[in-house]
Amino acid sequence: MAKRLLATVPVLIGVSILIFVMLNIIPGDPVTVMMKERISPDVVEKVKAQMGLDDPLIVRYFRFIGGALRGDFGLSYKLNRPVSQLIIQAFPNTLALALAAALVSWLIGIPAGVLSALKPNTIVDRVFMGFSVAGISMPIFWSALLMQYLFALKLGWLPVSGFYGAKYLLMPALALGWSAAGIIARLSRSSLLDVMQKDYIRTARAKGLSEVQVIICHALKNALLPVVTVMAIQVASFLSGAVITESVFGIPGLGRLAIDAIRTRDMPLLEGSVLFATFLVVMGNAVADILYSTLDPRIRYGR
Predict the structure, then answer these.
(1) Which of 8, 49, 90, 182 counts the most CB atoms within 10 A of its CB?
(2) DSSP conformation class of 196
(3) Rounded to whole angstroms, what are the CA distances from 61 to 21, 143, 204?
(4) Can you tell me the distance from the alpha carbon of 75 to that of 30, in angstroms, rounded to the nearest whole number?
(5) Is the distance from CB of 245 to CB of 255 less than 8 angstroms?
(6) Is 105 exposed, middle or buried, given 0-12, 13-18 or 19+ CB atoms closer than 10 A?
(7) For residues 266 and 155, what is the distance between their CA atoms, to the nearest angstrom?
(8) For residue 144, what are the CA distances in angstroms to 1, 137, 160, 184, 251?
């Protein structure tokens, strides 16, 4: 476990360098964008010097990464507030959306995949797999707009957008979780179908166990191993900021924070939010690897 966590350090360093360099070489001057008005080039240069933007790129990187290690991502150009404070304020909203979407995907995806595997090539299998393919294929922004039209405008069951309680979380969680549920359902189906052909399943049946006991005690335990790994990665992906979902439904989370930073060219806010999201994804992948090796003792890192 310690080796796997240590392996994330060079990844994070490399990603931080890429993020910082890419965000600082793109065209456009944040000082000019920030001031909007036509200002004297002398004033622009003076403001750049005061903000340290005229320092060499490597100096600015080490200043940025040194602050990031202390939890200080600098001051937002646009909002004039600490970036770390803005991220801490937005993260609980993204966390709530991520957990709700993950719950939706698990509650729909796993039962759908298991039932499809137990009833292959039947109407049940085709209905669930069709539902899964639709969730995977349809862009999230399109499914979100369809849900807003149906459940909010036509039926009036749910609010169109905003974030003022659990009721406002249901439709975004369904839109975001549908795609993930489709992936989990298809993976659960294929994995369970493969496991049901193994010799130890035939042995369990030969011992006189009922089909339910065979499935629950022997098949599911092994069939869900790859599914658990994917579920952990999906949660990390949700936590990194569901940019489209948060934008469509007006949720003030990490994704919307990054979009606002891009729109206003607020570099400290953009660098901080992207690096924080990357950290979540890298750690989520590390947790998925550790979880997989824990559930399956045959896999151990460093052997």
Answers:
(1) 182
(2) T
(3) 8, 40, 60
(4) 13
(5) yes
(6) buried
(7) 40
(8) 39, 13, 10, 20, 13
Q: What would the pLDDT profile of 51-105 be if each residue is shown by its tens digit?
A: 777 788 888 888 888 888 888 888 888 888 899 999 999 999 998 999 999 999 9
Of the candidates 9, 8, 11, 26, the one whose C-alpha atom is nearest the C-alpha of residue 271 is 26
Question: Hey, what amino acid is at 104?
Answer: V
Output the pLDDT for position 22.
82
Q: Identify residue 128 by its one-letter amino acid code.
A: F
| CB of 135 closer than 8 Å to CB of 179 | yes
Give the pLDDT band of residue 221 (cuts 50, 70, 90).
confident
Tokens of 15: 């990603």
Report which of 175, 170, 142 is spatially closest to residue 157, judged by C-alpha positions.
Answer: 170
Residue 75: φ, ψ to 5°:
-110, 135
What is the mean pLDDT of the segment spanning 191-210?
87
Residue type for 27, please? P
HSE, side-chain direction, 13 A CA sphere, residue 224: 18
Question: 149 is written with which tokens?
Answer: 């039209």
Q: Which pLDDT score, from 0 to 100, does residue 38 have?
A: 62
Residue 226: other Cβ atoms inside 10 A: 16
Q: What backbone torsions phi and psi does residue 47 show, to the nearest 5 degrees?
A: -65, -40
Amino acid at 143: S
CB distance 149 to 80 below 8 Å: no
Separation between Cα atoms, residue 93 and residue 256, nearest integer Å: 11
Residue from 180, 185, 181 nearest 116 by CA:
185
> How large is the C-alpha radius of gyration of the chain?
24
